[in-house]
Amino acid sequence: MPGFRVAAACMLALSMLLPVCGAAAEEVRIKDIVDVEGVRSNQLIGYGLVVGLNQTGDRLNNALFTRESLISMLERLGVNVRAQQAQLQTRDIAAVMVTADLPAFAHGGSRIDVTVSATGDATDLSGGTLLVTPLMAANGDVYAVAQGSVVSSAFSAKGAAASVTRNIPTSARIANGAIVEREVPVDLRERPLLHLSLRNPDLTTGRRVALTINRDLGSPVAEVEDPRTISLNLSGRDVIETLARIEDLMVVPDTEAMVVVDEASGTIVMGDNVRISTVAIAQGNLTVQVTEAPLVSQPAPFGNGQTAVVPRTNVKVSTDAGHKLGILPSGPTLRDLVSGMNALGVGPRDMISILQTIKAAGALQANMVVR
């Protein structure tokens, strides 16, 4: 079997065992493989009430926090219902947790999306309205306020004897549902010493990024500190202009030889650097078929005997001789490996066990991750 030098990535899906291969490794922009240190989003969370539900909200007798939240809200609006709280039986309200991500450089007045999730025994949040809900960060400060109509892509229907539900009706989103009240200050102009963080740590990729930056800028401003971090010394330069210039530079990223196996779905993903040593593979199936064919024994006419069922079992054992012994040469590429498995008629799930066995034999020169 000839060897092919193909810098590609192939995926073996459950439905078929066909390689999906691309062309040679291509250059990518630096902005697509790194993050600038300090430029990140912040998680926000809040507790609120959704009203206007069609009898699908919390049962106030079960969800005491919903009852107390409703009473407190009405009191703030000038309505005192504490004396008659036992009569509150509405199911049109639900207590929810509201979450959002505050993106970097979001200024006051900007709008962000929020996610609303039920915390009580509400069955459907569709059609409800979220009341004003402050969203706080981990330090307890309020950074945004959410309110708006809840939209869910789920639905549920039920009858007397059956019901159907699609997606999750107790979780919904509000597009542009929160207004940013406070921004997280990030001033890149005052930080001449920056760090670029590789999303996939690799020393080779980091070195290529640093060399590309230094060659383009004409001076050694970039230095690799570790497999993830590249430091930039931009003293005396316009930080924003230089970062924008660096982001559009092209590099060829390097990746670790890795095989990722998802046993639940039967999916195998292999990188283009996967190699195996010389190995012989034999794969066959043993089939055991057990058939029950009971025989009914009846007595002669006017006899004193009784009808009896005599068990009869047929057991058949067969082997699939169609799968032969295959030999892969030393150092085959990914295409060689996949072609060899296809020649043996191996399915994805059998391929998983074969790869695990090759790894156990020390012939798979790659890191194998089984999920």
How many helices? The count is: 5
Portion of residues in helices? 10-25%
Question: How large, in whole angstroms, is the Cα Rg?
Answer: 32 Å
Characterize the biggest β-sheet.
Answer: 6 strands, antiparallel, barrel
Strand content: 35-45%
Number of domains: 3
Q: What's the end-to-end separation, in Å? A: 31 Å
Low-confidence stretches: 1-24
Q: Output the strand order for the largest sheet.
A: 4-5-6-11-8-7
The general outline is flat
Question: What is this structure's SSE topology?
Answer:
Blueprint: E1 10-12, E2 28-29, E3 34-36, E4 42-51, H1 64-76, E5 93-102, E6 111-118, E7 129-136, E8 142-149, E9 155-158, E10 163-166, E11 171-180, E12 193-198, H2 203-217, E13 222-224, E14 229-233, H3 239-247, E15 250-251, E16 258-262, E17 267-270, E18 275-276, E19 279-282, E20 286-292, E21 295-297, E22 308-310, E23 313-319, E24 325-328, H4 334-343, H5 348-360, E25 364-365, E26 367-370
Parallel strand pairs: 16-26
Antiparallel strand pairs: 1-17, 2-15, 3-12, 4-5, 4-7, 5-6, 6-11, 7-8, 8-11, 9-10, 12-14, 13-14, 16-17, 18-25, 19-24, 20-23, 21-22
Care to describe what's here?
- The protein has 5 helices and 26 strands.
- The chain has 371 residues and is of the alpha+beta class.
- It is 16% helix and 35% strand.
- Residues 1-24 have low confidence and may be disordered.
- It has helices spanning 64-76, 203-217, 239-247, 334-343, 348-360, and strands spanning 10-12, 28-29, 34-36, 42-51, 93-102, 111-118, 129-136, 142-149, 155-158, 163-166, 171-180, 193-198, 222-224, 229-233, 250-251, 258-262, 267-270, 275-276, 279-282, 286-292, 295-297, 308-310, 313-319, 325-328, 364-365, 367-370.
- A hairpin with a 4-residue loop joins strand 16 and strand 17 (267-270).
- It is flat and about 115 Å long.
- The protein folds into 3 domains: 10-23 and 258-370, no CATH class; 28-38 and 187-251, Gyrase A, domain 2 (2-Layer Sandwich), CATH 3.30.1360; 42-180, no CATH class.
- Belongs to the FlgI family.
- One of its GO terms (molecular function) is structural molecule activity.
- One of its GO terms (biological process) is bacterial-type flagellum-dependent cell motility.
